[in-house]
Amino acid sequence: MSTASPPADQLLYTPKEAAAVLRYGRSTVYELMAAGVLKYVKQGRCRRIRRSDLEAYVNHLEPLPH
Predict the structure, then answer these.
(1) Res 66: pLDDT
(2) DSSP-based three-state secondary structure for 44
(3) Which residues contact 51 (CB under 8 A, 6 or more apart)?
(4) Cβ(20)–Cβ(3) under 8 Å?
(5) Which of 1, 32, 37, 38 has the fewest beta carbons closer than 10 A?
(6) How distant is the alpha carbon of residue 17 from its chain centre?
(7) Residues ≥6 apart with Cβ < 8 Å to 13
(8) How far is the C-alpha of 56 from the C-alpha of 54, rounded, in Å?
(9) Spatial distance between the Cα atoms of 63 and 45, rounded to a whole number of angstroms
(10) CB 11 within 8 A of CB 18
(11) Range list of H helices, the chain
(12) Sheet holding 46-50, edge to edge
């Protein structure tokens, strides 16, 4: 099993790949998807997250106050 991150030019990510990119657990990514916080597309039974949606999610994270 490889722990390498997917290529940066990849357009669609599996939840597992998105978790690796975000450095989150896979179940956390599924929870964000279920809550509608992280957008995804679905083709059949497959869920994929667009790179642009990952970037939008990260850009909207609020930093913690110091």
Answers:
(1) 78
(2) coil
(3) 10, 11, 12, 13
(4) yes
(5) 1
(6) 7
(7) 6, 21, 48, 49, 50, 51, 54
(8) 5
(9) 35
(10) no
(11) 15-22, 26-34, 51-59
(12) 12-13, 46-50, 41-43
Q: Quote the tokens at residue 62.
A: 């609020």
| Residue 41 parent element (H or E) | strand 41-43
Q: What is the pTM of this model?
A: 0.82
- DSSP-assigned letter for residue 11: S
The confidence band for 1, taking pLDDT boundaries of 50, 70 and 90, is low
Rounded CA-CA distance 10/54 in Å is: 12
Return the sign of the alpha-carbon dihedral for residues 8, 26, 40, 43.
Answer: positive
Amino acid at 62: E
pLDDT digits (tens, 9 = 90+) for 31-50: 999 999 999 999 999 999 99
